[in-house]
Amino acid sequence: xxxxxxxxxxxxxxxxxxxxxxxxxxxxxxxxxxxxxxxxxxxxxxxxxxxxxxxxxxxxxxxxxxxxxxxxxxxxxxxxxxxxxxxxxxxxxxxxxxxxxxxxxxxxxxxxxxxxxxxxxxxxxxxxxxxxxxxxxxxxxxxxxxxxxxxxxxxxxxxxxxxxxxxxxxxxxxxxxxxxxxxxxxxxxxxxxxxxxxxxxxxxxxxxxxxxxxxxxxxxxxxxxxxxxxxxxxxxxxxxxxxxxxxxxxxxxxxxxxxxxxxxxxxxxxxxxxxxxxxxxxxxxxxxxxxxxxxxxxxxxxxxxxxxxxxxxxxxxxxxxxxxxxxxxxxxxxxxxx
Length: 338
Description:
Helices cover 3% and strands 46% of the residues. It has a single domain (4-336), classed as Neuraminidase (6 Propeller). By secondary structure, the protein is mainly β. It contains one helix and 29 strands. It is globular, with a radius of gyration of 19 Å. It has one helix at 18-26; strands spanning 4-7, 28-31, 34-37, 53-57, 63-69, 74-79, 84-89, 93-98, 115-120, 126-130, 135-139, 150-154, 156-157, 160-161, 168-170, 176-180, 200-204, 210-214, 220-225, 231-238, 241-250, 253-262, 277-279, 285-289, 292-296, 302-307, 312-317, 323-328, 331-336.
């Protein structure tokens, strides 16, 4: 990786004193990668002068699940193999936020025992997709004083344990959606611990009822909703079928489905597979995949790619969506948005 040096403050920070503001503005970070522009629409989303900042790195084994936490004015993210969640902000830099994060010590796979995707529930509590515990859980402690105490939201379906929940989101009504590939199991699909016959995408309603939305993806991974919440996008991190699907939704579940984008032909030449994704207020999709973060318009047109030069797992906006944070292998990166 080639690093350059860029002077970039954090566009998502709250108001500070003039001295603090000057100190923040003076900070510089190495930069890496490039922005590949395939369509002029991308210039309306990412400035032609924007650089990919490397905020911190080399401390992680596989960084995942970034989440901007307004209460902390910081981004938190998982390191799945280390079973830890880290916190980064402009003023204090990197620090440990929570450990253990994905298991209570009885994990199935020592190499994939941590938390993965992170989100907030309507009560502003941290919700984690936990590989080791094989469940989606809520952290019982407050955001500013985290503790490794969890309550399960979903740990089984059809009387059988889940595989290893991977990513998790909420809609505006408080319904939860999550994916359940076998990555946290030793041997994955061949694991003797695997109880589910499928790798599913699920919905948990506000009453706690779990519904299977689809079992047709071999490796369901990241997921996100369109701004009107009528479309659920799901990534499939299978090198033989590296795709994103779009599912039209109703209160009852999936009403129709279509292929949103097929990146299978890109996999042999570029690092990464379809993984985490986020959707902005206008419906543009920022999806980690081959090369880094692919940017699509709502029709599925590929506008360009934020090439991180790393296998990139997930991404997250800051509070006002003026920056995109990216977990890219051993690194936490950021690029400013318009």
